[in-house]
Amino acid sequence: DTAVSQTPKYLVTQMGNDKSIKCEQNLGHDTMYWYKQDSKKFLKIMFSYNNKELIINETVPNRFSPKSPDKAHLNLHINSLELGDSAVYFCASSQDYASGGRTSTDTQYFGPGTRLTVL
Amino acid sequence: AQKITQTQPGMFVQEKEAVTLDCTYDTSDPSYGLFWYKQPSSGEMIFLIYQGSYDQQNATEGRYSLNFQKARKSANLVISASQLGDSAMYFCAMRKSNFGNEKLTFGTGTRLTIIP
Q1: How far is the CA of A85 from the CAs of A60, A78, B99, in angstroms?
Q2: N- or C-end of chain A: fewer Cβ atoms within 10 A?
Q3: Rounded average pLDDT over A72-84
Q4: Do A41 and B50 touch (CB under 8 A)?
């Protein structure tokens, strides 16, 4: 019954590798997000997709490429991993108010996070 | 640009006491939403409570209430009758509009420790 799920939960890899993190939501939401939480616990938006369309891209390096095959999935692919990419990556989703059927608060619900460690 | 400030990096509170976590915000937008999330040591982000900028009453959700003072641009979280399970990081966040798919801007968080 998980609302927003991410795989894997932990990812340890070498510098220079390419890796992907997958996210799925079963809430029927229209919008999905990727956030990055750094070692000081600071959370920052990376990307947002609405109905498979990119709507927010917060000056993230080109090595990061989100892909949304359908509105229930938003994957994050990272090329040429660097030490500074080590962080916890959170996927989130929310209902698009304009689509109707919104929740009263249009809250963003988060996945459990993926801890990426680049060695 | 929006900004969220949480001035308490850490707090220690005796079990069963009430606790107030401070949050001030800065925005020039007339329409915005304010959120509190809890992050326990297990790492997940748990939504606690929401306040819209046009809401007339302070939001409440069980033991959580939001002390919304619009003129002072503050949105403090109040936890009544604290429990050991309340020990966690707490994040205040803001979204530009009351609804829609705008991004969340987070504060730096407050680490709350409940002492038995």
Answers
A1: 11, 9, 31
A2: N
A3: 96
A4: no
